[in-house]
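#dry-run=false #mode=assembly
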Amino acid sequence: MDDVLEGAVCGIDGCTPAAFDQVGPASGAKATLAIEVISDAICPWCWVAKRRLNRALAALGARGGDALTLEPFRAEAFPVTRDLMVDRSAFDRIIAAGGFISVPIGAAPDANAMPVRKENADLAMDAAACIGCGACVAACPNASAMLFTSAKISQLALLPQGQPERYERVLNMVAQMDAEQFGSCTNHGECEATCPKGINLNMIARMNRDYIKATLLRGRRDPGTGGEGVG
Ligand code: SF4
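#status=ok
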C-alpha cells in the first residue's frame, strides 16, 4: 500500500510526486480517503476488486476521517444482505411457482420423436440462455423482473413439452413476481440493453400475450376471478 501512498503521477512530461504526499506531510494537514464502490450486478471483477480494496485498507490501518461507501444495486425484491451482496432468492421463488414441467414423461424419448419447428427451437434456446443474474432488475428504473420471468416462461411455452401447463404456468409465475414486489414494465428497454445473454423484449411480449389468454381462459372456467396483471 505504501507504493500507492508514495506513488507519483506520470504523464508525457514525466512524473511528479502524488498530490497525496504534498497535502500530507508538507502542509501538516491530515489527508483522508473517500472511496465510493458501486457494484455491477453481473461483473465478477467487482468482487475481486472489493477483496483487493479490503486488503489495501487493512494495510493502511485504522485512520480517522476516512470514508468508505459501498453501494449495492437496489431493488425492493432484492434485500441487501451485507456490503455489496443482495439476496436474489426471489428469482428462485418465481421459478418454483411454475418454471418447470410436472407432467410425467417417462424415459427420455428419441430426439426425433417429437418434432419441433426450427424457429421455435432456436427461440427456446435463446430464452434458456438466461442465467438469472438480475442485471435486468438492476438496470430497470422500476426494478421490474419481467425480462427474467418472461425468459423462463418462454423457454417452455415455445416447446411441445411446455404446452400442458402453459397458461397455468404464466398465471402462477406472474403472481409470484408481483408478490415479490418487483415493479411493472413501462417499456424503458434498459433490461434488454444490459442483459449479458441478449434476452430481448419479445420475451416480455410473448409473456403478456400468454397472460392475457390465460386470464380469459380462467375467466371462462371460473367466472368472477381476476388477476393482478403484468403491468
Ligand atoms: S434476462 Fe438477462 S439480465 Fe435478466 S436475469 Fe436473465 S440473463 Fe440476467
